[in-house]
Design goal:
The protein folds into two domains: about 90 residues, DNA polymerase, domain 1; about 180 residues, Orthogonal Bundle (hpI Integrase, Chain A), CATH 1.10.443.10. A hairpin with a 4-residue loop joins β1 and β2. The N and C termini lie far apart (about 60 Å). The protein is mainly alpha-helical. The chain is globular. It has a three-stranded antiparallel β-sheet with strand order 1-2-3, with no helix packed on it. The protein has 14 helices and three strands. α11 packs across α14.
């Protein structure tokens, strides 16, 4: 069922404002749109019960009904927390625009979520994964270079596949990344990543290009690769390397952060390299490192 014109227009105005003001990624904007569209459709269903409600004038009672409906449907607390974050941003936007004078979400707290430790790999598993591509093939040489960069920098997959030639300096050994919120950061590549990217640029990249392009890691069609395509490539190499862990698109990013901390890196340095705006986002990795230290003590201490 399509949204009514008023809600549809209000939602698109909000999404455009979020893009202009905060530079949010397309994935984040898509999540906002999905969450708020479902809520608006719920409001329209309530209108059939003689409640004249829209996004611009919903109240706390109908919001509580919607949250109860989500709970009864078995939706996760993480999903509800994301919805409330989307709705909170919408209400703050409507307050700034003087579209409404109250915020029904302000008194609500997000569901308490269990602390999920990020899935990661051991250092030996990472080496097996990095060695899985056969580098005599242009596509696998590209993948080898991408895996090396991913582990050396902790980039998000979207940041990696979007890299352009003018963001890379092999001479200085750094890459300039535009992350969430349109924030730029310089990240060192490390010698191995520099060597493999250099090899790919000299020996593999031209074989993949169909026309002139500034994309560093083109797809086999010579265009910008999607994050989903690269993720399928990672899963292929994890099978070749016989890695049994259930990988996620962020697995090498998590490994990058965890292995840095395990080897004595400062938490704020890791925060800067990952592009986290808040240190609390990085602190999750201290739990991973602490868990590993506890295992080492248990295994090797005489009274462990």
């Amino acid at each position: 069922m399509p949204l009514n014109n008023a809600d549809s227009n209000q939602l698109e105005n909000f999404i455009e404002a979020m893009w202009l003001e905060k530079g949010l990624s397309e994935n984040t904007l898509s999540a906002y749109r999905s969450d708020l569209t479902k809520f608006a459709l719920f409001l329209e269903q309530q209108n059939e019960l003689d409640q004249s409600l829209q996004l611009i004038d919903f109240n706390q009672d109908v919001l509580n009904q919607y949250l109860a409906n989500r709970y009864d449907s078995g939706l996760s607390g993480r999903s509800t927390s994301r919805f409330l974050s989307s709705l909170r941003s919408l209400c703050q936007y409507m307050l700034r625009q003087k579209i409404r004078s109250d915020d029904p979400v302000s008194l609500l707290q997000n569901p308490k979520l269990p602390q999920l430790l990020p899935k990661t790999l051991t250092e030996s598993q990472v080496i097996e994964l990095l060695n899985a591509p056969k580098t005599d093939d242009p596509i696998q040489l590209r993948d080898k270079a991408m895996l090396e960069v991913l582990y050396a920098t902790g980039l998000r997959v979207t940041e990696l596949v979007s890299l352009r030639l003018d963001q890379l300096s092999l001479q200085q050994g750094v890459v300039r990344v535009t992350g969430k919120g349109n924030k730029e950061r310089l990240v060192p590549l490390g010698e191995d990543a520099v060597d493999w990217v250099s090899t790919f640029l000299k020996q593999g990249r031209t074989a993949l290009l169909k026309s002139e392009s500034d994309v560093i890691f083109p797809s086999k069609r010579g265009v910008l690769m999607t994050r989903q395509t690269f993720w399928h490539r990672i899963k292929l190499y994890s099978q070749i390397a016989n890695i049994q862990s259930d990988l996620s698109p962020h697995t090498l990013r998590h490994a990058f952060a965890t292995h840095l901390l395990n080897n004595g890196a400062d938490l704020r340095v890791v925060q800067m390299l990952l592009g986290h705006s808040d240190l609390s986002s990085t602190q999750i990795y201290t739990h991973v490192a602490t868990e590993r230290l506890q295992k080492l003590v248990a295994e090797h201490h005489p009274r462990g």
